[in-house]
Amino acid sequence: MARAGWAPPRLDEFILTERLGTGTYATVYKAYRKKNTREVVAVKCVSKRSLNRVSVENLLTEIEILKTIRHPHIVELKDFQWDSDHIYLIMEFCAGGDLSHFIRMRRILPEKVARIFLQQLACALKFLHDHNISHLDLKPQNILLSAPENPQLKLADFGFAQYMSPWDEKHVLRGSPLYMAPEMVCCQQYDARVDLWSVGVILYEALFGRPPFASRSFAELEEKIRSDRVIELPSRPRLSPECRDLLQRLLERDPLKRISFEQFFAHPFVDMEHMPSPESLGKATSLVVEAVKKDQEGDVSAALSLYCKALEYFVPALHYESDARRKEAIRAKVGQYISRAEELKALVMCDSKSLLRQANPAREILKEMAKDKPRLCAALEMASAAIAKEEEGKDDGDTLELYQQSLGELLLILAAEPAGRRRELLHAEIQALMARAEYLKDQIKMREAQSMGKEALAESVRSSCTLQ
Ligand code: ADP
Ligand code: MG
User: Where does ATP bind (predicted)?
Assistant: First the structure.
């Protein structure tokens, strides 16, 4: 294997220059294609001696398959060559270095930045999973960044680990056990699910600045890996409940209880649907077209809900756009839509208040008729408290919970209520309350989308939306 200080190997079509990195199995050099284009590439030199289990021929067949893979978040394998000692992989050059360096320079990453990276990683893993390929060696060193500015994550080093056992001939572990799933280290028996554990470790390290099994000595590390204690998450920095939930479910020691690939791709913190992609802007625009139509027709609440759904795509679209002028144009539009959504919101609020007042007389009659039924009385009281709270305009989350509790009770009571006037009134009241609760839920969602839109605007103005 090439070592630091050695002259780079010679390749017919390329001029090899500086060493970019040395990993577990290979040394990687920056290189230029000799012919006309002078294209910059990275050449990875793998020593044939590090290959075991399967013959070199099988590996070459596998590389042939990897060559056909094209994905925006996977390092492109352009070509390969070999001689008596080495296999040379000619790859796309990633100028942003690797994720381990990126995290170290910043100590920790804000949840929002970590989430964008995680979404890109999930996107690459989904693609590999659909092609039945496991990585088996996921770690920040194997995740590269396309460029120092506005970096896109690029997964590297996949598809080879299966030809290279994590143990060498003397049964000494190769690579870093910090990122390996416990079953890989302990039982020497594992499958694709080890990749999900490693994703958990990478996310943990990005958010807390060190991997969960960080240790001062090998004995301490071994103890942590072999233990059956649940992985505890530090209480700081504060993270969203979705983010904590995902970490906990990825870092589950038992591969049978660990989150599955499908659950991971659909997890609310990953939310692949709303990740910055070339489609974000198209989706946002078609929703906004519908919103404008409803707005013109005077359907205020439908228009509002569509504007908010559109904003959920505009935010990632803003992140995705790298051209400064186009970004500015999107930003101006988003500003307009936010203002319009706010106007509509004020209108909807007005409407709903008058609706609320109209519903009152029947409610009072029902209360009269409930006097000999303490349980019904209490449930109706709770509903009134929710309405009062809503009118005050205080904590919507609490109000919604109150609505839901009272509705739960009222539905149980309705099931046992005999036919008659009281049942009719109760039925109508439940429907009215359900509509209120639904409406409140929509309000909460819309507010979230709007504040996300505003935050993204402010953020993009501050930093032109790079991930710095
Ligand atoms: P190994 O299989 O030996 O672990 P890697 O493919 O992970 O080798 O490469 C080792 C290091 O070289 C990486 O951690 C990274 O820092 C650097 N590197 C690898 N590929 C590229 C590339 N395409 N562009 C830029 N740097 C790279
Ligand atoms: Mg590597």
Answer: 44
Q: Check pocket membership of 51 for ligand 1, CB cut-off 6 A.
A: no
Taking the CA of 75 as reference, the closest ligand is 1
Domains, the chain, ordered by start: 14-92 (3.30.200.20), 99-269 (1.10.510.10), 359-444 (1.20.58.80)
Q: Please give the Cα distance from 125 to 116 (Å, whole number).
A: 14
* Ligand in closest contact with the CA of 160: 1
CA-proximal residue: ligand 1, atom 4 (nearest):
23
Query: Which atom of ligand 1 is nearest to 157's Cα?
Result: 6
241-295 pLDDT, tens per residue?
Answer: 999 999 999 999 999 999 999 999 999 999 988 888 889 999 999 999 999 999 9
Residue 24 CA to residue 166 CA, distance in Å, equals 10
Does the annotation place 454 within a ligand binding site?
A: no
23 lines ligand 1 (CB under 6 A): yes
Three-state DSSP class for residue 77: strand
Does the pTM exceed 0.70?
A: yes
Q: Which residues participate in catalysis according to the annotation?
A: 137
pLDDT digits (tens, 9 = 90+) for 295-344: 999 998 899 889 989 998 998 898 888 888 999 999 899 889 988 988 88
Segment 36-40 long-range contacts (CB within 8 Å, at least 24 positions apart): 40/93
